[in-house]
TrEMBL record:
Domain of life of the organism encoding this protein: Eukaryota
Organism: Hanseniaspora valbyensis NRRL Y-1626
A Pfam family the protein falls into: Oxysterol_BP
Official protein name in the record: Oxysterol-binding protein
Similarity remark: Belongs to the OSBP family.
Gene Ontology CC, one term: cytosol
GO biological process: endocytosis; exocytosis; maintenance of cell polarity; piecemeal microautophagy of the nucleus
Gene Ontology terms, MF aspect: oxysterol binding; sterol transfer activity
Length: 436
């Protein structure tokens, strides 16, 4: 499916209805990998997917609080014994919930409906920082498009002063059925706090609702898992508004001392429920069924996101997202569909020429800050240990797939060998051209 050219003799309402109807029909009839499609101009966001990595830390205070030895998680229940490890795990869960609104619903709120981000080109990067008051130092955000076919974005967010670092990568595989676009996310995130504490976080699946009404929005579904190196385990179930009841963007999170407690259906330490885009409530495992002694866990609308500091476009290199896409972004904001198509084509044709020249010269693109590591050589992270504790698949399957499950078997390919993208800090320290 190619970009849509607009008949300017029609009214704007007629054009919008026509293009949306055509878009839905084309998706429904398409056979193959939907991620290979070029989205029509009317559904595009003026922001590249590489920028989405910043959403992991738009509330950096919550992330940094996880390594504050003097911070006690609130609310605190009198009948619970809080070890340092449990206290930190609760901070990690709260931070994870705080990342969801920006990642999955902020565009619907700011643009009126979900928009497709610009598909990054190979080697595209996005960098920025959050400057904090002393003694919290600086939190750095790095994002790189490490693969174009399939599209994969890798990222790292770190604060050396507080000894906190996050790294991960994401690949989305969309499918269409029954008037709904479903997306399986591949990849995971690894959070390291201090010298020893690490956490594995898996990514939820999602689907796009409201397509028929021409007002798409994201709903999360399935599960996310958080596995800590000291054993604590959280399972987060996502569900949306049903036909008769319920609220959109709903979730229920259960926190256990270990994965084995979850498997044995032991009573959880805590149960958190509510809306990840709104207010959620926490109970102890003893109180949840009786709805006794509820405490507010997180209010996503109370604290505004802290914007990443990004240097002016004129100071950026041609590989940086906002400079590379500036003409396309301007056309999208102007609503000039033909200009969107023209500017987008110029950039994409330039990239195709680069790839062709590489092939003809026998050279291949080298990633800037991330390395692709076979799973059996992944010694720079605790992924193997944490995934094993959580009984998660090590194969190239959707994030959070259980090892040995039918879901794992469904996605396995005979020739597939799991590899993971890992941040190479030395490459960033040696970087000469890209600056914050």
């Amino acid at each position: 499916m190619s970009d849509t050219s607009i008949d300017t003799s029609s009214s704007s309402t007629d054009v919008a209805n026509f293009t949306w109807t055509k878009f839905i029909k084309n998706i429904a009839s398409f056979k193959g990998d939907l991620s290979s499609l070029t989205a029509p101009p009317f559904i595009l966001s003026p922001v590249s997917l590489t920028e989405f990595s910043q959403y992991w830390s738009e509330h950096p205070d919550l992330l940094l609080a996880a390594n504050n030895a003097g911070a006690q998680f609130e609310p605190k229940f009198d009948n619970v014994e809080y070890s340092d490890e449990l206290n930190q795990f609760l901070f990690v869960v709260k931070w994870f919930i705080s990342t969801l609104k920006s990642q999955y619903s902020s565009r619907n709120e700011s643009m009126g409906s979900e928009k497709k981000p610009l598909n990054p080109f190979l080697g595209e990067v996005f960098v920025g920082k959050w400057e904090h008051k002393e003694p919290q130092g600086t939190t750095v955000c790095l994002s790189e498009q490490v693969s174009h076919h399939p599209p994969i974005t890798a990222y790292s967010i770190f604060n050396d002063t507080n000894k906190i670092s996050l790294q991960g990568y994401n690949q989305a595989k969309p499918t269409f059925s029954s008037a709904m676009l479903s997306v399986k996310q591949f990849g995971h995130a690894l959070l390291k706090i201090g010298d020893f504490n690490e956490y594995l976080l898996t990514l939820p699946s999602l689907h796009i609702e409201g397509l028929i009404a021409a007002s798409p929005y994201v709903e999360l579904d399935g599960k996310s898992f958080i596995q800590g190196s000291f054993g604590h385990f959280a399972v987060i179930d996502f569900f949306g508004k049903g036909w008769m009841s319920g609220k959109k963007n709903s979730f229920k999170c259960k926190i256990y001392n270990s994965k084995s407690d979850y498997d044995c259906d032991e009573k959880p330490l805590f149960v958190i429920s509510g809306q990840w885009s709104g207010i959620s409530t926490i109970y102890t495992g003893d109180d949840e069924k009786k709805k006794k002694n509820p405490q507010e866990f997180y209010d996503a609308s109370r604290i505004p996101a802290e914007q990443l500091q990004v240097k002016p476009i004129e100071e950026q290199t041609e590989f940086e997202s906002r400079r590379a896409w500036k003409d396309v972004a301007a056309a999208i904001k102007e609503g000039d569909f033909n200009k969107i198509h023209q500017t987008k084509t110029v950039l994409e044709e330039a990239q195709r020429t680069l790839r062709k020249n590489e092939d003809e010269s026998g050279n291949s693109w080298e990633t800037r800050w991330f390395d692709l590591i076979p799973v059996d050589e992944d010694n720079r992270s605790s992924f193997m240990k944490l995934a094993t504790l959580a009984q998660l698949s090590l194969e190239d399957v959707p994030s959070g797939t259980i090892a040995g499950s039918k879901d794992e078997a469904k996605w396995l390919k005979d020739d597939a060998f799991a590899q993971h993208w890992r941040f190479n800090r030395q490459k960033w320290d040696d970087e000469k051209d890209i600056t914050l």
